[in-house]
């Protein structure tokens, strides 16, 4: 139990969120269909992972072939304030946060390295907050956060 809703209330305003807890939790999921289809049509996508329940550790490995893993640079990520609040308020350790939540990364897209910058540019044209946060490497399946 991260939040005691009875004592805090979903109507409580949090400066770090810039809104109430309830409004932050009700922020709708972004829909990536059009930009992803265009990206695939233009430069080609190797794989896509929708980061939902199960976070990084469950979702990303399912999209990678045997013998490959994802190496994610934590410092490149941009977690939303709600995740920092959950971690701090609930004393949730980092591994559990990345195993449970998307940490602000709604989708991971893998393209050939030479197309990475172009992919980011194209996705930003669709108002997607895209950025490079890691790479795929050969080795045991899974995700390594570094």
How would you describe the overall organization of this protein?
The chain has 146 residues and is an alpha+beta fold. It has one domain (10-145): Alpha-Beta Complex (Phosphoribosyl-aminoimidazole Synthetase, Chain A, domain 2), CATH 3.90.650. It has seven helices and seven strands; from the N terminus they run αββααβαβααβαββ. It has a three-stranded mixed β-sheet with strand order 6-4-7, covered by helices on one side. A hairpin with a 4-residue loop joins strand 1 and strand 2 (19-20). Helix 4 (55-63) packs across helix 6. It is globular, with a radius of gyration of 17 Å. 16% of the residues are buried.
Present the secondary structure layout:
Elements: H1 5-8, E1 13-14, E2 19-20, H2 21-25, H3 33-42, E3 47-50, H4 55-63, E4 68-72, H5 81-90, H6 94-100, E5 107-110, H7 116-125, E6 134-138, E7 142-145
Parallel strand pairs: 4-7
Antiparallel strand pairs: 1-2, 3-5, 4-6
